[in-house]
C-alpha cells in the first residue's frame, strides 16, 4: 500500500469579496477565540507590512502533535484574512473547521486559496464547505490542490 501524497503549502482564508465585513473580525476577537479554543497557543501581535495594519502571528496545536502556524490580518471591520503556512490538507482542514464553526458568525462566509494553486495560475478563491467535518473539508482542499497538478 502506498502512502497518500500529502504536500505542504500555504493557505489563505478570507471573507467573500462581495461582503468583506462578513467576518466582523478584529485582532482582539481572533486572539480571544484562539486562546479559548487552544489554551497553549503561541500568539504574537505585530504590524502587517503589507497594509500597515494590526496583525497576529500564531501557532496552535489543532490535534495532538499537529501544529498550524499563521498570521491573521484584521485592520478594519471590512477587511480580514488569515494565512497559514507550510501545512498539509489534513492539518488545514482541522484549522478551517475551527475557523468556520467556532469563530466566524456565518458558515457561508469563508473563501480559501493556496499558494500552490496560485503558482499554477489559478487565482479564483474556492468556497469552504458550509457543513461537514474536517474529513469533508480535507476532501475539498485536496480537490483544490489537484488543480495545480499537471495532467
Give a structural overview:
- The protein has four helices and seven strands.
- The chain is α+β, with helices and mostly antiparallel strands.
- A seven-stranded antiparallel beta sheet has the order 2-3-4-5-1-6-7.
- β2 (42-48) and β3 form a beta hairpin.
- α2 packs across α4 (134-146).
- The mean pLDDT is 87.
Helix content: 25-40%
Strand content: 25-35%
How does the helix and strand content classify structurally?
alpha+beta
Distance between the termini: 23 Å
SS field, number of helical segments:
4
Q: Shape, please?
A: globular
Number of strands: 7
- Sheet bearing the most strands, described? 7 strands, antiparallel
User: What is the N-to-C order of secondary-structure elements (H for helix, E for strand)?
Assistant: EHEEEEHEHEH
Mean pLDDT: 87
How many whole angstroms does the radius of gyration measure? 15 Å
- Low-confidence segments, given as residue ranges, are none
Q: Output the strand order for the largest sheet.
A: 2-3-4-5-1-6-7
Write the layout of secondary structure elements.
Layout: E1 9-14, H1 27-37, E2 42-48, E3 53-63, E4 66-76, E5 79-87, H2 89-103, E6 111-114, H3 115-119, E7 126-127, H4 134-146
Antiparallel strand pairs: 1-5, 1-6, 2-3, 3-4, 4-5, 6-7
Helix pairs in contact: 2-4
Amino acid at each position: 500500500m502506498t502512502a497518500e501524497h500529502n504536500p505542504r503549502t500555504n493557505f489563505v482564508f478570507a471573507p467573500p469579496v462581495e461582503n468583506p465585513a462578513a467576518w466582523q473580525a478584529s485582532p482582539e476577537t481572533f486572539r480571544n477565540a484562539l486562546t479559548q479554543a487552544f489554551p497553549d497557543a503561541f500568539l504574537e501581535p505585530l504590524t502587517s507590512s503589507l497594509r500597515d495594519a494590526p496583525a497576529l502571528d500564531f501557532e496552535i496545536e489543532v490535534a495532538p502533535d499537529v501544529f498550524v502556524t499563521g498570521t491573521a490580518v484584521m485592520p478594519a471591520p471590512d477587511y480580514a484574512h488569515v494565512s497559514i503556512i507550510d501545512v498539509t490538507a489534513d492539518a488545514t482542514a482541522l484549522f478551517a473547521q475551527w475557523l468556520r464553526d467556532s469563530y466566524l458568525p456565518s458558515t457561508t462566509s469563508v473563501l480559501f486559496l493556496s499558494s500552490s494553486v496560485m503558482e499554477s495560475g489559478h487565482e479564483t478563491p474556492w468556497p469552504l464547505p458550509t457543513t461537514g467535518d474536517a474529513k469533508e473539508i480535507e476532501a475539498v482542499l485536496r480537490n483544490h490542490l489537484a488543480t495545480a497538478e499537471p495532467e
